[in-house]
Every structure is written in C-alpha cells, then in structure tokens.
Write a structure and sequence with these properties.
Length: 180
C-alpha cells in the first residue's frame, strides 16, 4: 500500500498490460471476456485496445454519460468513441442537468448510473424528462435491478446491469438511437 492506494498490474486482452490504482473499494467491470477490477486512477493509453473499433458515421450523435465514478465515465468513452459518437461525461448529475437545460441541440441519448451521491438515476431521469419528454435514456446499475423503475412516472427506455460487456453496451446504445 502506498498512501492508501494499492497498485495492481493485471494482464489483459492479448498480452496488453493494464495498471490500475485500487482506492476505496473494488468494482468489477467486464470488458469482452475479460474481468477488470479497479475503482479509479487507471491509465487509458492501452484501454482503446480492448474495444473492437467499427467506425461509423456517428459524428453528429451526442451522448451524455453521467456517473460519479470517474473510471466508469472513462470506460464508457473508451467503448463509445471508437464508434464515432461525441461523448460528454459528467461526474455530477446537477452539472449534467444544467448542461442539458442549456444545450441546443439536446443530446441524442442520456446514459446514467443509478447510484450517485447527490441524486439517483431515477431522479435525474425525471428531471431530464420534465425538460424533454422524448429524451432517450439508458439506465445502468450494479446496485439495483429493473424493478427499481416499476411503477415510476418516468422510466428509462432501457436498463443495463453492471458489469456489462462492451458489445452489449454498444448494442443497447445503437438500438436506442435507431428507435423512433
């Protein structure tokens, strides 16, 4: 341990080494057939090698990603950017809401975590939908299941449980964006 941080070097994806600093708690994330365990402070230089890049004409598609865990924001960016999407990440739901309110045009998709410090994902969904009733929303969570929004006034368009695989994440994003 070094100042509360534990460095762990894990071999990943076809011989590429990934170094992560472990802080506070361990959080599992699936990347293809690989299980990474980290919470924050990882280097992103080799992360791009984990996703299969399929360039698409998505440069006009804006996606907001809201999660209070910096590593999960980075993971979402690493998965989505190679597909051509414009990504804006937010660690704070209030900041995301302020940016959304002022945005012209509004994002094509909102991806939000459920468990955050200042506001949960369902509260954020309600606030976004109050401003834009047709906003497409993907709720991701490793702490609750789909039952969390049963009976809710505003529900996400889709739910994805953590840990998730990048190909499932991309598939859900593409299907939501293709839906009318």
């Amino acid at each position: 341990m070094d100042g509360g941080k534990k460095r762990r070097k894990t071999q990943v994806y076809q011989g590429i080494n990934w170094t992560a600093e472990m802080q506070r708690h361990r959080l599992p994330i699936c990347a293809n057939k690989l299980l990474l365990t980290a919470s924050s402070g990882f280097t992103t230089g080799t992360a791009k090698a984990m996703t299969k890049s399929t360039p698409a004409n998505n440069s006009e598609v804006l996606i907001y990603v809201v999660d209070d865990e910096p590593m999960l924001l980075e993971l979402a960016s690493v998965i989505l950017e190679p597909h051509g999407y414009q990504i804006k990440t937010f660690r704070d739901p209030e900041t995301a809401l302020a940016q959304f309110t002022a945005a012209k045009p509004r994002p094509d998709l909102l991806i939000t975590d459920y468990a955050m410090h200042t506001m949960n994902g369902m509260q954020l969904i309600q606030r976004f939908r109050d401003l834009e009733p047709a906003q497409k929303i993907l709720l991701v969570s490793g702490t609750v299941g789909e039952d969390i929004f049963q009976g809710a006034e505003q529900r996400p368009d889709r739910f994805l449980a953590k840990p998730y695989k990048p190909d499932q994440f991309i598939r859900d994003v593409e299907e939501l964006l293709a839906a009318k």
